[in-house]
Amino acid sequence: MVGLLVSGWGASYEVVEMCRAEVEEAELPGVRARRGAPVVQAPRATSTDRGAVLKSLVSASQGLLFISESDAPFSPVDAPDRKFGALDDATVRALAGHPAADPVETISVDELFRNAVKDQPWHTPREAADVKKYRALVELLHSTLPDAKVYRVGRIAIDVLILGTGPGGGALGLATRVVET
Questions:
Q1: How many domains does the chain have?
Q2: Residue 148, SS3 per DSSP
Q3: What is the mean pLDDT of the chain?
Q4: What does the alpha-carbon distance between residue 133 and residue 104 come to, in Å, rounded to a whole number?
Q5: Do residues 158 and 152 make contact, with C-beta atoms less than 8 angstroms apart?
Q6: What does pTM read for this prediction?
Q7: Residues facing 78 on adjacent strands
C-alpha cells in the first residue's frame, strides 16, 4: 500500500492528515481515496528523520496558497513504498488519483516557484512576506529533497506533486493544485 498524504481537496483526492496531525498533536485519520476507492488506514511514518522532513515541509508551507486561477494550499505527500528514482508517469498518475489518459509534465522546483519568489514593486506587506516564505520553502525543498522534481498531472485542474527522495528512499514532498484555462 502506498501511504499517500494529500489534503485540501476533500473527497477528490486521497486524504491523510498524518503529518498535519502530528504537527497539531491530533489523532491520525484514515485515507480517503479518489473515485470511490475504499477508506484505508495510513501507516505512521516509521523514520523519525522522515517525519521530521515532512513536518518541516508542512511548517514551511503553512499559510501559503499557490496562486493560479484558483488559489490552493499545500499538503504533505508521503509515499514510502514508492522509490522516488523508480517513479514513472503511470505511478505519478496513480499517486495523484488520475486516470491513465491524463498527461504528466515534469518541471523543476525553481520553474514552479519562479514567480512566487520574485519581489514586485506593487506587493503589499503581506505579499512581500509571502515571497520570503516561498523563498524559504524553495530553500528547504532543495536542502531536504535535493533531487526533487515537480509533476503536473491533468488538464485545466492540474494536480502538482513536488516529490523527492525522502529518508528511507520513498517519495516525499508536497502537493497543490493549479487551475489553468
A1: 1
A2: coil
A3: 78
A4: 27
A5: yes
A6: 0.75
A7: 172
